[in-house]
DNA sequence: GGGGTGAGTGTTAGCGCTCACAAACGGCTC
DNA sequence: GAGCCGTTTGTGAGCGCTAACACTCACCCC
């Protein structure tokens, strides 16, 4: 294994130039004669030459790899973000190395960051949607370019985030516009920034419409907890509209409503958040909010590359607006 | 940016030894006096020294990164596999670099493989569940250690795969045991090995029980197509049991049954495949087959590391048995 | 006492690349 | 024709590490 391929000098010899000229061709320097460039390129093709990144990284002191720290990568949201990041990074010539963490506490995060540093990443993207992660990041070594996604809005680390509040406002307004007096909210875990933002947007929309603001029903992100909350809401006749913090919660709520014989949307309207691919095939198809993963990925990488290239300036905060996807889980309230 | 940290010679100077001794400590060579080792380790901690992977990779000719080629990483299956791989790799001191492809044809795959090679990966895992990928892999350069997951059983490339047929047999037998005369199958795309294996297992179980074998209903993997197939099956009164090639198809079928007023499981039983986390919260909770992603990941990495280390021997084919997860979507047929 | 042995350490030579610098060349100005 | 520019190419050093080898001891055996 690990047979060494041809090196730059081999290409140089074949093309009848110095290794330095080959390097210049590879790095697209100006001041290489067209004819020389063609000769070098031909030699590269002929030998099947492939530049050695390790050697380049050694001398330049930076690699072409960015590390990502994420939790729960099997969930639709993180997985989508990861895929989008990978694609954007590839376009910029960077590879993406993932590091999953079980918990987003200081110890887990810095362990994975440390692993990334050992592997010599050029920069790190941390998907850090909870309080504990925010604190952990402040304590990280400053030597590495770092960007957080969905992180602490009050932190000092460069941040890209989906405008949770805007999405929640839209969802809530959509329900109010359908004629509901007020909207109940099944919220995500209290320590997630996403949860906080969605609660805030929901509350703002209600207040703006002069509607009553019921207490949010706390849950985690799972269909299981959505189901439990749904069981409660199903027994409350005054509930006609529910906005859940994500689609899986909505799924649980839908199942509970079904079991209690409360028809959706005829008796109760439901709106989710995330637009998972299956959302269109829930019973009934779910109206939800779609965050722009691709836009988030692009913004994150831009921010990171700016830091890697050493340019100090530019915005350190980017907000991506989500959009509402209307389906059949919303109708006018009964009566 | 990219401030160079302390190098091995700095550690050596502080510990009063040569850089080579530091290297020996780092690589756990024998023949280093305990006392010396402690002195070196103290110096490493004091300076916050971190070995430069690029330099090591340059001299040894191999990196500590493995590349993964996968399609559709936002789906539950691939995402789970990816996460499992990453964890197993981390334990072995390897980083995982993902490369998503839109299509599993020769061009896309070799482009991503090429990208991985440029970045100097030590080996590659290809998640290659379709015919076209199988062909593409045979044409890849042999110089790189390679393992396929869910790939072509007839190919020559080392392979780890879930025993699709065994899982399908179990699912089908489970339905037959519940008293159904026969079981209908909504199958995955024809060019997927997974589909073929599941069809085969389903057919075997029916034949073994002397049951009639209906024509499989072809679909893709989406809830959308499951829904369309479900609409058809719902109108066929003789259908009492359906085995779908994955859970999303089952979700679509469930929705169709619901719309046509056919109760599950009272009138029709349904079994899926994959055990996505939401499966327990479908209406009704879905009986399904759980493939062992962790086991697949572990086997793949073992196979890959064996190749990387140059050891030729060992099995080049590993099969992982899935298990049936019984929930409430299966009951005796009506009447 | 000469010559082995093995533990523990140091010296040297690259791995393949980029960077800084030098050099060669033609064309221009004065 | 001396001097200067801009273009095009080459030379040499060195990034931080490991592998190969050389060396120094202490210890043992005949």
What does this structure look like?
Two copies of one chain form a homodimer. In chain A, helix 9 links the parallel strand 6 and strand 7 (217-218). With 335 residues, chain A is an alpha/beta fold. The first copy, chain A, starts with 7 loop residues before the first helix and ends in a 10-residue tail after the last strand. Chain A folds into three domains: 8-47, no CATH class; 65-160 and 292-319, Response regulator (Rossmann fold, 3-Layer(aba) Sandwich), CATH 3.40.50.2300; 164-291, Rossmann fold (3-Layer(aba) Sandwich). Chain A has helices at 8-15, 19-26, 34-47, 53-60, 76-91, 106-118, 131-138, 164-177, 193-208, 223-234, 247-259, 293-308; strands at residues 65-71, 95-101, 123-127, 146-149, 159-162, 184-187, 217-218, 241-244, 269-271, 288-290, 317-320, 323-325. Chain A is 44% helix and 15% strand. Chain A contains twelve helices and twelve strands. In chain A, helix 8 (164-177) packs parallel to helix 9. In chain A, the strands form three sheets. A six-stranded parallel sheet of chain A has the order 2-1-3-4-5-11, sandwiched between helices. Chains A and B meet through helix 4, helix 5, strand 2, helix 6 and helix 10 of A and helix 4, helix 5, strand 2, helix 6 and helix 10 of B. The structure holds a DNA duplex (30 and 30 nucleotides).
């Amino acid at each position: 294994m690990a047979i060494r391929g041809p090196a730059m000098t081999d290409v140089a010899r074949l093309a009848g130039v110095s290794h330095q000229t080959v390097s210049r061709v590879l790095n697209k320097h100006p001041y290489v004669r067209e004819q020389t460039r063609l000769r070098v390129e031909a030699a590269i093709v002929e030998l099947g030459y492939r530049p050695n990144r390790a050697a380049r990284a050694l001398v330049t002191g930076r690699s072409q790899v960015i590390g990502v720290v994420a939790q729960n990568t099997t969930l639709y949201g993180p997985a989508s973000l990861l895929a989008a990041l990978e694609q954007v990074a590839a376009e910029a010539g960077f590879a993406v190395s993932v590091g999953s963490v079980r918990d987003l506490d200081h110890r887990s995060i810095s362990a994975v960051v440390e692993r990334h540093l050992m592997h010599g990443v050029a920069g790190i993207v941390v998907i850090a949607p909870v309080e504990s992660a925010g604190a952990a990041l402040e304590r990280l070594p400053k030597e590495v370019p770092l960007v957080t996604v969905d992180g602490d809005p009050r932190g000092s680390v460069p941040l890209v985030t989906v405008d949770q509040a805007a999405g929640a406002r839209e969802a809530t307004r959509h329900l109010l516009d359908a004629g509901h007096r007020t909207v109940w909210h099944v919220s995500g875990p209290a320590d997630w920034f996403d949860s906080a933002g969605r609660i805030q947007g929901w509350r703002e929309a209600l207040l703006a419409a002069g509607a009553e603001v019921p207490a949010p029903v706390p849950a985690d992100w799972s269909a299981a907890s959505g189901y439990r909350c749904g069981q409660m809401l199903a027994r409350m006749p005054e509930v006609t509209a529910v906005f859940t913090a994500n689609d899986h919660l909505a799924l649980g709520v839908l199942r509970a409503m079904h079991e209690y014989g409360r028809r959706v949307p005829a008796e109760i309207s439901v709106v989710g958040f995330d637009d998972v691919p299956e959302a269109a095939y829930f019973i009934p198809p779910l109206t939800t909010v779609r965050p722009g993963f691709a836009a988030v990925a692009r913004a994150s990488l831009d921010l990171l590359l700016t830091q890697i290239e050493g340019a100090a300036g530019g915005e350190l905060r980017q907000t991506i607006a989500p959009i509402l996807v209307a389906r059949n889980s919303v109708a006018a309230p009964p009566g």
